[in-house]
User: Which sequence fits this backbone?
């Protein structure tokens, strides 16, 4: 039931952003608010759990990329950095900015999750360096750059102003970070 409600919350969040009401969720789930409140004490708790659930979906997708033996090391790095949960389509990532003000605990969860879970990515980056596919770089700076870009995409107004989707912008960030900006001969 918990997962079903979280899926419903993601759907309503995708449609209305963090301003959705528990009535909206109850209507989407075709259940009473009372039932939802037996699982989540309030909307803050729901938003925090939804954030964890969304990042768990991302980590599952990363694991599939990481363990795909048909991909090269660089393809796996690119895949992990650009991965999105399968349920992201149609999601208004610009709505994430509103989390900081309305749901600071959920926003903090997002920040924490963005900063964690780098073990497999770092392992692949080190492997790429060892294999000679990636030049020797400061991996801490690489991580900092990626996190800063993702946070700005989610929390800034670039997506709205540029009329660019989050998947498109994330793909471009990954391309620049993995391929660089120099045209190779």
Assistant:
């Amino acid at each position: 039931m918990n997962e079903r409600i979280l899926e419903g919350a993601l759907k309503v969040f995708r449609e209305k952003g963090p301003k959705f009401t528990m009535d909206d969720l109850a209507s989407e789930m075709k259940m009473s608010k009372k039932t939802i409140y037996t699982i989540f004490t309030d909307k803050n708790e729901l938003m925090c759990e939804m954030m964890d659930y969304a990042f768990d979906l991302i980590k599952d997708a990363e694991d599939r990329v990481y363990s795909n033996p048909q991909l090269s090391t660089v393809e796996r790095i690119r895949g992990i950095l650009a991965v999105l949960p399968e349920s992201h389509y149609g999601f208004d990532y610009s709505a994430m900015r509103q989390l900081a003000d309305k749901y600071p605990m959920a926003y903090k969860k997002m920040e924490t999750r963005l900063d964690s879970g780098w073990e497999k990515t770092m392992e692949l980056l080190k492997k790429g360096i060892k294999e000679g596919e990636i030049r020797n770089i400061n991996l801490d700076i690489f991580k900092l750059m990626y996190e800063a870009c993702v946070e700005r995409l989610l929390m800034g107004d670039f997506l709205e102003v540029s009329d660019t989707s989050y998947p498109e912008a994330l793909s471009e960030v990954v391309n620049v970070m993995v391929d660089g900006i120099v045209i190779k001969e």
